[in-house]
Amino acid sequence: MTAIRFVAMPTTDAEYLWNGGRDAYDRLPETIVSDGPGHPCRHCLQNIDAGEELLVFAYRPFPELQPYAETGPVFLHKQACTRYAAEEIMPPVLTTSRDFIVRGYSENDRIVYGTGAVTEIADIPAYGEKLLARPDIAYVHVRSARNNCFQCRIDKVRAPALADTGALS
Fold first, then answer.
1. What average pLDDT score do residues 86-100 get?
2. A Pfam family in this protein (predicted)?
3. How wide is the angle at C-alpha 137 spanned by C-alphas 135 and 138, nearest 5°?
């Protein structure tokens, strides 16, 4: 069994955009007003409430350009929010649809073919664990099943390194 954690957009990415940074297409984010559910913030992993301003921008959750570096539209609260921290619990944004695409990626950020599956909400943690138990999968994306938009990442929980006590075994 592989322990997993749900990972939100890094705060450094969110701060960059909140401070006037440009998106993956070198454009300024658009500002719109939420009309209610359906605008999941990728930083706090909560839905953005009706009447709140939000940023819409192209996001590429990969370290560099390459053929598998999917880029797509995502949302972010316009005002700074706290990054999702309850990583062992499925985030609230993953309860707003009946299913999501769950897909594995290799250490070199390529899609691992055959792993992508439309997955019902209740099955996301188990499928994420199953994928991450494979040696060829470094991390998993959860994406919209309807639009393929990035929602969050699932990582393995790494065991803490054992401290060298200097004791002989």
1. 90
2. DUF1203
3. 105
- Across the strands, what pairs with 30? 56
Q: Does residue 55 contact residue 16 with C-beta atoms inside 8 Å?
A: no
Q: Which two tokens stand for residue 142?
A: 């959860």
For the chain, domain boundaries = 4-156
Evaluate the CA torsion angle 56, 155, 62, 120 in order and state its sign: negative
> Encoding tokens for residue 3?
């322990």
Q: What does the pLDDT look like over 8-18, one tens digit per residue?
A: 999 999 999 99
Amino acid identity, position 113: Y
Residues 6+ apart with CB under 8 A from 32: 53, 54, 56
pTM for the whole thing? Answer: 0.90
User: How far is residue 96's CA from residue 155's CA, in Å, rounded to a whole number?
Assistant: 21
Q: What type of residue is 94? A: L
- What does the DSSP assignment read for the chain? ---EEEEPPPHHHHHHHHTT---TTS-PPEEEE--SSS-BBTTT-SBPPTT-EEEEEEE--SSS--TT---EEEEEESS--PPP--TTS--GGGGSSSEEEEEEE-TTS-B-TT--EEEEGGGHHHHHHHHHTSTT--EEEEEETTT--EEEEEEEPPPPPPP------
Say if residue 162's pLDDT is above 80. Answer: no
